[in-house]
Amino acid sequence: MPRATRTPGVRPRRMRLGRTALLLALACSLLTGAAQLLIKAAADRGRDAGWTDSETLLWLLAAHTLLGLGFLAFLLALRRGELSTVYPVLAARYVWVVAATPFLFSTESLTPLKLAGAALTAVGVVIVARARGE
To answer: Of all helices (H) and strands (E), which one includes residue 95?
Structure first.
């Protein structure tokens, strides 16, 4: 791997998390969170109908398509921002999944402890997103 050259007295340009990188990171978060919900739905259906059931396989195919699109959004976000700033924004997916799960799956509940964890994660995502200009 070629070594980067530095000009004496010139500080390397620091990448910041611009609006596009932030939106791509949030898109990745939403896409991969939705994929996780589809995987949960497929797992529930696979348990009841069998793993080779055509509808179960379609759920899994849709989930993997969303995962692929999320990965693409992540790659594009990394081209425009630092990993140390982009990656924590992806943690927002835990908030989406925790918030959506009890409404989509009757076997899931939303406890005060889960709400507290999701809130702490959301606060961390906001702090990291706001720190992008520093």
So the answer is: helix 92-104
Please report, for the chain, the start and end positions of each structural domain, with discontinuous segments joined by +.
Answer: 19-133
Triad 99, 104, 44: Cα angle to 5°: 120
CA 12 vs CA 2, 20, 21, 109: distances in Å: 16, 22, 20, 49
Strands (E), 30-81: none
For the segment 9-59, what is each residue's pLDDT rounded down to a tens digit? 655 555 555 889 889 999 999 999 999 999 999 998 888 877 788 888 999
Q: Are 78 and 18 in contact (CB under 8 A)?
A: no
Q: Distance between CA 110 and CA 104 in Å, rounded?
A: 12
